[in-house]
Every structure is written in structure tokens, then in C-alpha cells.
Write a structure and sequence with these properties.
Shape of chain B: globular
Number of helices of chain B: 12
Distance between the termini of chain B: 57 Å
Oligomer: heterotrimer
Order of helices and strands of chain A: HHHHHHEEEHHHHEHHHH
Strand order of the largest sheet of chain B: 1-2
Number of strands of chain A: 4
Order of helices and strands of chain B: HHHHEEHHHHHHHH
Structural class of chain B: mainly alpha
Helix content of chain A: over 70%
Radius of gyration of chain B: 20 Å
Largest sheet of chain A: 2 strands, antiparallel
Number of strands of chain B: 2
Helix content of chain B: over 70%
Chain lengths: 343, 309, 388
Amino acid sequence: MKSRYQDENLKWIPILIIAIYLFPFLIKNATFSYKYYLYILNMAGIYIILTVGLDLLSGFTGLMSLGHAAFLAIGAYTSAILVDQVGLPFELSLIITPLIVGIFGFLIGFPALRIEGMYLGLTTMGFGFIVKRLIIALREWTGGSAGLQVSKASFFGISIKNDWDNYFLIYTFVILAVIIARRIVQSKLGRAFMAIRDSEQAAQASGINLAKYKMLSFFISGLFAGFAGVLFAHTNHFISTDHFDILLSIFFIVMVLVGGIGSIYGAVLGTLFIVLMENLFIPMFEESMAQIIHLKAGEFQVFIFGLIMLLFIIFQPQGLYGMWLKMRIYWKLFPFNPRKRFT
Amino acid sequence: MSELLTGLLQESISGIALGCIYALIALGFTLIYKATEVVNFAQGEVMMVGAYVNFFFVTQFSGMAGGLNGWVFLAALFCSIIFAVFFGIILDYIINRPLKDEPVFSIIMATISLAIILRSLTAMIAGPISLVPISPFGDSTIQAGGIVISVLDLAIIISAIILMGLFFFFFNNTRWGIAMKATSEDSEAAQLMGIPVKQVYRMVWVFAAIVGIISGVLLAPRMALLDTTMSYLGLKAFPAAILGGFGSIPGAVVGGVILGIIETVSMGTLSFHFAWIKEINDIIVWIVLIAVLMIRPDGLFGIAKVKRV
Amino acid sequence: MKRIVSIIILSTLFWTGCENREGTPGITDTEILIGNIQDLSGPIKELGLLIPAGSNMYLDYINEQGGVHGRQIKMLVEDHQYNPQKSVVAAKKLIEKDQVFCLYNVVGTSPAEALRPILEESGVPLIAPATMSSSMADMSRQAAQYIFHTDAGYDLQTRVIIDYILENNPDAVIGLCYQDDDYGANALQGCAEAESNHSISVQKEAFQRGATDFVGQTMNFMKGGCTDVIIGGIVREPVTIMKTAQAMNYKPNFYGLMPTVDPRVGLLAGEVGEGFIAPYHAYYPDSDESGPTLYRELCDKNNVPAKMRGIYHYYGFATAHVLVEGLRRAGKFPTRERLIKGLETLNNWESGVFPPITYSRNDHTGVESLYLLQLQGGKQIAITDWRN
């Protein structure tokens, strides 16, 4: 079964990539507020790079991280400081910053060797708070709570000025990130991660060096997050610690969860779903509801978000990707679907 | 020198009071974890709901009684506890029914989403304007040898001790308590032994709700304004619960008190003498937590779980 | 299959139909569309309810009188939850999707600062950002020519208070309790200025936004022997600090920065708050100037409940005056440039709510003077005249 689907997958991928690149032109012709939609997609793209890394850590290796917004923050601020204050060119920052964030990943991976499960989740949460505070404390470089203006990116001479350019820059890297992540998952590294998730004792008994692979998992997810951080800083042009709080970390985990833990495509779908839902669907829903029920705008949005999250956890624990797989198998087997399987 | 000591003592007492609040919230966490292995991220929100509900009752009753007096507060407290029982049953219904076979991770995420829902629901119902809480003890304070402690703080400390004593007794000396401990170790074996697991879960959620609401009632007057940011204190109680070791009731209280003292002393005396400490005041609890976890991964009083393959 | 898909893709590429936008966005023959971004569900959601309500009250009043040059003013409010990232998303939605004419009253320093790149890119003015940080009026920053500030900065307030303290007591030992974020950073700037002007040193204690316990800071002020303590908080902080100090038998003079002029401080602190002094940069809602009188009339007419009336509601009301005047001066066929030029013609303009405002090409500060109010018997009484 796997090889059949493998073939089909490969055929769709080039078309998907071309579609991604053509998408902005489509939107530009469709509506005059295309810049806004591009901006939302850009945000989703940056978050996709991060959640793919997070999925590798939490979904594939089973190490829960409730502080991933901190890695994003470290990446963003590091790149801002390197490019604006130290004078590094943007292309170099794209390479160095992820490495630095990966090293921070190592640092937090160290406690992970001894601490497990829920305790690890709370440790990473604490890490998130500590990093946020430290960024404020280093105010000479980071601008403290007031935030930092960041310069625009310039990639090999092409200056990236607005949302249009941002889109192409970001989604090129999104495609790369997804491909790399899939490669990792299908390699020895990925198998080691999954073994650790399923049973640490069995993995150890099979000769997998727990310490090495756990640290590696943190390092890699740090790389992805750092990369996302660079893009975040240089496409948003303003970063401040108010944004990188515990709520954002929870959002990331929700994106991974809703998309389906343990699936790279799931992380992509989940992120897209959450970002689009928050920025497009809920406001549209609200506008139509506003006629019926007079509700205070902001709270209702948050309420719906929490409700959808709860409903997903209750009814679709495999997430969006699980739903997609079920649909695909249903379609394949039609009309011979065994009744019990799809209730 | 004695001024330094008086200062430290004053801060410590204030820290103990703060710590007892953390301890009460941590008690709620610990109760649920002890029985169901679930970490209830919504405990802070339960506390917030308790504060709002109590405020509602107080204003209603004082309106009926034509003024504030001791009976109003007692009646409000009583009604709040009854509300807590129902609230706990509802929460149990939402969390435990649909999710009984899911991995713990999902249930924890469910409590996180519950926290979000509760917070926004409260804001929608109560409106965005902050409320002015009314303290049953007014602003009265007791002075003892240069140290000032407010009656409210004293009440908090006493309640924490009483509740801890009650639950400790309950878990070790009553049938239901031991049943709960058994269920947390292995729910299937407990079922086989005839323990009604669903009822145990419901009971434990009701207890946690009661504890949460009492802590809300006690904490509200300590804050000058009441609004939904109160629930973030719940997050701060996490280090307290973990420090003491999840699953240990005296641990939760000890952890809470230690953290409360560390926080107040660092904000006061330590910041005065070492200026750089000012920077890390609010995260000092997390730093302490991580340090402790690295040395004793199960917390100070926690028992290392034996891993079965 | 592949062929069909590629044909579809190529044909959509050739599909023209880019909508053409004639005229200035946000302006039609009958309407002017204004964008407002508030904190509707975050830490200061209270303000998100009160400030736009006040603005809308005044805008409705103007609309009833025929609007500005025959156009009705309509305000859209978006939520940013005090998150600068969300503020950017909200601004993009308002500018690109809803096509507003200008932005107004964006609340919070970092959410407002985050908008600078967008303002620059799209040329949209931001009128009266609802934050007292003087960085908004700093002309050296990006997009400063698009921003028109109406508040007296925290640094100005701190400096004025310190000047006042030293005037009355040259030997005063001063302490400043500040919030550790952009609010406090701005206050510290003013403090540093005052320190160098008077060659004194001020004891500074920080607290985190949202903190509830101030025993440590109060004890430190006591140990430092401070006779006058300035509190850079909002409502909870001054009340808690004064009560804590009272319990410790520590009785310095207490002052606060402008957000503490909220009457709830007096209400909550009770007799502990007696003598508390705070600055204000507009005519007080209870006074007899034309602006406050109109405010009270409109509140009564619209049945605004008592708990909503207060300085935040009044703030929205007052800043709306500046917006409307700017729209008036932009003329019958307003464009964004004309709005900016129109506002820059304001010279000692009497609004009835603020002291005379002057804007020029290089000065977008707005209000540069304050007066001090003191809590006496539960009411706030002005004790000084306008000073800067």
C-alpha cells in the first residue's frame, strides 16, 4: 500500500509547488484587498516552518514543549540584533541564527534527559517565561518591552519590501522545510525518534542512545524555529516580547494537535487551519452572528477558538490529517466501505 | 541588623500568605492529578469563576439584606460552595465522559481549551469592566511586635492549613480517599476491585472545584480590582505543585509556601541589596523549579513512579 | 488530468479584472470611514469598551449635525488584545480590506509602535494614538509625519511632578515606582531629565505589569527614607501600595502618573488615598469648560450609565474633537495628505477639552502642559494651574 501512495504523492508535488507560486497572482486578480490575504498567508507560512519543527519534537519524539514561542522569540531577536546592530548580511543571518537557536534547543534538551512527560511540559513552559523575561532584561540590545524595529530583508541583492515579495521568500523556505522534515521522518533519525516516543525502554534495549537522540530532536526543532524567527523578524519589521507569550506557545501545540500529531502534512494543515480560522473565518462568522446576537467582539472570537479546539480534541483526535486519510481511503474503497470503519 | 530581620520576617509572613494562595490552587491541581493523572490547566480559571460568582452572591445578598454584614458573606460563601459542586460535576462531564480513553496528552489539551473557554465566557457574561471586590474583613490588620499582618492574610493561611488537613485525613483514613488513591495507580484494577471509577472521578473534580472556588473567594479581596487576568495566577501555582511533587498534598502546600516566600523576599530585601534581582523577580519561581527538577525529577515530596514496560 | 489542471492554471493567469480603485480610500460622497484598534479581550479590555464608546458618542453628535462637509463619520473597531502582532493584522485588515481613510486612537504603546512600517508603506495617518508614551511624538522615528499625538507624555508628567515636589520641599527624598515596560521606560526618561536638572537622585523600584503584591517595593521605599513616592501604575497599583504603606505605618506623600487620575483610585483607596496627587492634561469632566459641559449633556442625553462615565470614556470623547477638526480642515475633497496638512495648521486651537493645541510640520506633540489634581475628601480638586 505504501509504495502505491508514494507514487501518487510524487506526481502531485510539482503541481502543488507551482500552484503555491501562482497563488498570489490568482488572489491579486480576484480581490483588491489581496495584500491582506497575502499577509495572513505569510504569517501562516512562518508558523508552518516552526510547527513542522515542533511536530518533530513533540509529535515524533514525544517530548512535549509548551514553550516554543520562546524559540521563535530567540530567533527573531537574534536575527534582528545580528543584522541591525552587528551588521551581518541577511543571508548569513539565515544560516547562523537557526544554529544559535538550535544551541538553545540543546540547552533546554539537557533537563529533558531526566525530566519527563508532564514535568517536561511545565519545564518548557518555565523556559518560555524565563526567555521572555531575559529578553526584556537585556534591554540595551533588544529594546526591552518597548519592542524593536527590524530592517527589511535583502536576499542576494533582491530587496524584499512588501507582502508580495515576502510571500515568495517565505513559501520557498516553507517548501524546503517540509521536504527536509519529511526526509528526516523517513530516515534513521525519524525512526529513532518514533521509537523513543513509543517506548523509551524498548528503544534503549534496541541500542538507541536516548540522550543523543533527544538532544538532537531539540536541536532540530530549534533550527526550524530559529529559521522561522529570522523570517518573522524581517517580514514584520517590528518585534516585541508582548507577542511571544504562553498563549502563542499553546497556539503552536494546538496547531500540531489539530493537524494530527506525528504527521508533517498534518502540521501544515493544522497551522493553515488555525491561522485562517482565527483571521478569516471567525470574523466572518462573527459578522453574520452580530445581527442575531449582540456580543462583544473580542471575547467571542476567543470563545469560539477554545470551543473548536475542544471539539477537535473530542471528536477528531487524529486531527485534520487523520480526517484527510480517512476521506481518501473512503474514496478509494467506494462503494465497498465497511460500515463500521467510518462511523 | 534587627531592622533587616524585621523586614525579612514581615516579607516572609506576607510571602506565606501569598504562598498559601498558590498552595490552595496547587491543591486543586494535585487532587485531580492524584486521582486521574490529568493536569488541570483550568484550575486558575475555576478560581476566577469562584471569585466572580462569590462577588455576584455578595452583591445580591447585600442588596437583599440592605447592607454588608457577616451573614451576607457566610451566605455567599455557602452558595458559592454549592455552585462549586455543580460546577465540578459539569466539568467532570465535559472532560471525562467524551475523553475517557484518550491519552493523557489529549485530556490536558482539553483542559487548556476549557481554560480558554471559561475565561472568555466569564468576560462575556460579566462584561469587560473590572469589578471592585469586597473583603469580608475590611482592611483590618493585626500588629505583633513590629510585624503587620492583615486579617485577610491570616484567614488565607488558616484556610489552607484546614483544607490541607482535611484532605490529608480524607486520602489516608477514609474509604473513598483510599479508593481514589487506588484509582490513580491503576484504574482498571480498581474497577475490578469494585471501586466505582466514574464516581471517583466526579468526586475528585467536585473537590478540586470547591478548593478552586474557595481560593478565588479568598484571593479576590487581595486584589484591588477583579478581572479575568486573575486566572494567570493559576499558571504561577504550577511550580508550587510540582515543587512539592505532583500527587503529594502536603507537598503542594509546602511548595506553595516556599515559592510565596521566595517571591516576596526577592521582591523586597534581595532586590534592595542586589539590584539585578529586580530583573528576575517574576521568573524566580520558574528558575527555582527547573533547578529542583534537575536534582529531583519528581519534586521534593514526590515518589518516583516505577515504569512498567 | 495534469493537462486539464495546467490549462486551468494558465487561463486564470490571463484572467484580468483587477478592480480599479478610484478616489481616496475611505471617502465616499456620504461617508468617511475611520479605523480604530482597541484591546477588546486582553488585559485592558475595559478601555476597549469605554474609549470607543466615548468617541462614538461625540461622532454621533457630529453626525447628527450633518457630519463633516456633509459626510457621516463611521468608525470600525478591531481587536488587538494588546498584542503588537495582532495589531499589525488588524491594521492591515482595516487598511487593505476595509479601506479606511485613517487610523485613530490605537491603544497601547507597543501595538501602536508596531504599526509604523505599515503607516509608512501605505501613507495612512494615525490620529491621537491612545498611549501617553512620548515616543509617539518623536519626530526622528519612522513614519512620524503620519502620527499626531494628543497626550502629554509620561516623561513630561514625571518631570512636572518632581518639579512640583521640589518646589514645595527642596529636601524631599523621592521614590518612583514604575511598571517595567514601555510605560515605565518613558517615565524613567522624564525622571532622568528631572534628576539632572535638580542634581538629585531618585530611588526607583520596578514592578511587572499585572503584579498584585507590593510589599517588597513599599518596604524598600521605607528603607530608603522616601518622603514622596510617585507611582507609575494604573488603578490597582497605587491603591495597593497606599494600603500596604498604611499597614506598615509608612506615610509619605503619594503621587501618581496620569492613568492614576482615574476616580476609582479615590473610591478604592478610601481614606488611605487622601492627599493623593495626579496630573491631567485635559479639562476635568466635572469642570465648567465648554467641552466637559457638552460631555455631561451628551452623557445624560444618551443615558450613559454612571459606571461607564469616567476618564476613559471622556478620553475617547476628547480625542474625537481633534479627529473631527482635522477632517474639517482637510476640506471638501479630503485626501490623506490634506488631512495631515490640515492638522498641521492647528495653531493654539481651542478644542474646549484640551488646552490650546499647536501642530506644525516638525511638532506633532499636541498637548504639552498639565495641571495637578489632589484627592480631598474623595473628590479631585485642582491644586495648580497649567504647567510644563
